[in-house]
Structure formats: C-alpha cells, structure tokens
Amino acid sequence: MYKSLIPNILTSANLVLGFCSILSTYNANYTWSTVFILLALVADGLDGRAARFFGVSSEIGKEMDSLCDLVSFGVAPAFLAYTYCLKDLDYFGWAVAIAFALCGAWRLARFNVNVAVVHGFFMGLAIPAGGCLVATAIWFFRSIGMETSSLEPAFPLVMIVVAYLMISEVHYPDFKGKGEKIFLASKIFAVLFFAAILFLGREAIVSAVLFAVFSTYSVFGLFNFSLSLLFRK
Q1: Any alpha helices (H) in the chain, and if so which ranges?
Q2: Is the separation of the CB atoms in 148 and 84 below 8 Å?
Q3: Under a CB-based contact definition with an 8 Å cutoff, are residues 86 and 97 in contact?
Q4: How far is CA 29 from the centre of its chain?
Q5: What does UniProt give as the signal peptide span (predicted)?
Q6: In the chain, what's the furthest Cα-to-Cα distance?
Q7: Burial class of residue 90 in the structure, from the number of CB atoms within 10 Å of its CB (0-12 exposed, 13-18 middle, 19+ buried)
Q8: Which of 16, 82, 107, 202 is the S-S candidate for 97 at Cβ 3.0 to 4.6 Å?
C-alpha cells in the first residue's frame, strides 16, 4: 500500500503547489508564485519516477498527473501573467491568458493519446516547460527592474508563441539518445542564447539562470527542428 502512496503524494503535491502559486499571485507575491510553479515541476518529475521505481504505475495516476499539470503549468502561469502584466490589456489580456491555458490542455490531451505512438521526442513544447518559461520570465524581468508597461507590447506575443509551440508538431529532443538528431549548429546557438541571457541578467543571476534554461530549450527545439526540415528538403 505504501508503495502507491508515495507517487500519489507527489502527484498531489504538484496540484497543491500549483494552487499555492495561484494564491500567491492573488496576494501579489509574484516571486513565490514562480517558486511554487518550479517546485511543482520537481514534484511532477518525481512522481513518475517513484511510480516506476515501486512498480505501481497506473492509468489513474497518469490521468491525475495530467490534471495536476494543467493547474500548475497551464492555469497558474496564465493567471500569474494576467495579474502581473496582461490585465491592463482588457479583453485581449483575457484572451491571451485563456488561450495559453487552453493550449496547455490540448497539449496534455494529445500527449495522452499519442503516448504509445510518439517515441524519441516530444511533439510540441511540453506544458511544464511552457509554464515554467512564462513564470521564470516574469521573475527575471522583475529582478532586473523592468517595468510592466515595457512588457505589454512584447510579452503577450511571447505567450501566444509559447502557447502555439505547445500544440505545434515541432519535435523537441528528449535527450535520451534515440530521437531527433541534434545538429552542431543548434548546440552552438543554444550556448550563445543561454550566455546572452546570463549576461543581461548578471545582476540577478538566479532568476537569469532559471529563465535561460527554459527559454533556451524552447528556442533550441524550434531551431533544431527547422534545421532538420531544411536538410530533409
């Protein structure tokens, strides 16, 4: 009995931490909003490993995992972005936040349907990466003193792009060595992109590193997939 209890606790912790992020956003504690989303990512990464370790994987656990992911990496980041910098855009801000959560839900549903079909890569940006990208971006911009007014023209577009990447057919490497070919040019591009963010955020290195990790992965996958399509032609 205890073997199934541990992964179930971790899965539930994912949802609890996601809801804590929403409550932190409601109280305008944006740093903790991001921290809770990142902690939810840790719980999300451990529950599946714990289930496989104890040999207690189940269909209910898989579905529960997706539902928790939707809250922690779809709804919580969308609410954080809306409260922090989208609310002044009126209904357009509503639309961007809702679209992000909807695309996250679609991404999770498609993953569950294709889990036995798609191997060696992720089809579309995984919702934990997308949600953490939005959350760490806000933490990073706050850490370097960027005003919300300066984010309004670009940040909604970034969220739309991230939402699209989640439901796209872009192949993101899973780094297990059996999927998409990773080009040398993609690696160089990723290193340069990562270094550029660290340079810009050198005064707020913690938030810069976290934002660099998720943003670099997001653009790296798109860049590498574009190269693969180019060479196929």
Answers
A1: 2-26, 30-54, 59-69, 76-81, 91-114, 127-143, 148-151, 155-167, 184-200, 205-232
A2: yes
A3: yes
A4: 20
A5: none
A6: 54
A7: exposed
A8: 82
Residue 71 token pair: 């809250």
Entry field: residues in the chain: 233
pTM score, whole prediction = 0.92
At 27-82, the pLDDT tens digits run: 999 999 999 999 999 999 888 777 777 676 777 777 888 899 999 999 999 999 99
Cα atoms in the Cβ-side hemisphere of radius 13 Å centred on 81: 36
d(CA 194, CA 220): 10
Structure tokens at 6: 């541990």
Structure tokens at 7: 């992964």
Name the 3-class secondary structure at 172: strand
Q: Is 110 helix (H, G, I), strand (E, B) or coil?
A: helix
CB 115 within 8 A of CB 4: no
